[in-house]
Amino acid sequence: MIEMNVAGIALDAVTRSPIVLLKDGSERRALPIYIGQDQAKAIIGALENQKPPRPLTHDLIVNLFEAWGVDLERIIIHSLQDNTFYAVLCLRQGEIKKEIDCRPSDAISIALRTGSPIWVMEEVIADASIPVDRDADEEERQAFREFVENLRPEDLIQRGGFQQENNEQQ
């Protein structure tokens, strides 16, 4: 799993649909998730620390957690099926832990309000993320190519500890 942060809300240029954009810690990969208008407003409200005069749905959920002594340990966006993302809230109350199915947009909104981490499974990132820093990705690929081109069989033997074991047996 990779921890992600909310980079912000964007609008799809063609459909004008809101997208929540998650970025990894190195800001090299971004995960766009299409969401509804209401969810976008809720996420923006959390990002801007807006306090409504009366609790909205996500605020109510956080208030319930607090009243019942429930901690949101993290959210996990765990799969992508038929262009739909799936997430869970990982909750803890004392020694009891539960995972509750949740839309990613709602999970993100609640996580922002509680300061809880947002995790995404590697498979989801591999399937749906977009590169943010193509130059850094290319530099990394080039460095790996050079490493492989200059690699000799003896380097693998020395690094693997095989040479030392073989010498000890002789």
- Ends apart, CA distance between termini: 44 Å
Query: Biggest β-sheet, characterized?
Result: 8 strands, mixed
What percentage of residues falls in helices of 4 or more residues?
40-55%
Give the count of structural domains: 1
CATH architecture: Roll
Instruction: Estimate what percentage of residues fall within beta strands.
Output: 25-35%
Q: What integer value in Å does the Rg equal?
A: 22 Å
The coarse overall form would be globular
CATH superfamily: Bifunctional nuclease domain
Domain BFN: 1-132
InterPro entries: BFN_sf (IPR036104), Bi_nuclease_dom (IPR003729)
Pfam families: BFN_dom
Protein name: BFN domain-containing protein
Question: Helices and strands in order, then pairings?
Answer:
Elements: E1 2-11, E2 18-24, E3 29-34, H1 37-47, H2 57-68, E4 71-81, E5 84-93, E6 96-102, H3 104-114, E7 118-120, H4 122-128, E8 130-131, H5 134-149, H6 153-160, H7 162-169
Parallel strand pairs: 4-7
Antiparallel strand pairs: 1-2, 1-7, 2-3, 3-8, 4-5, 5-6
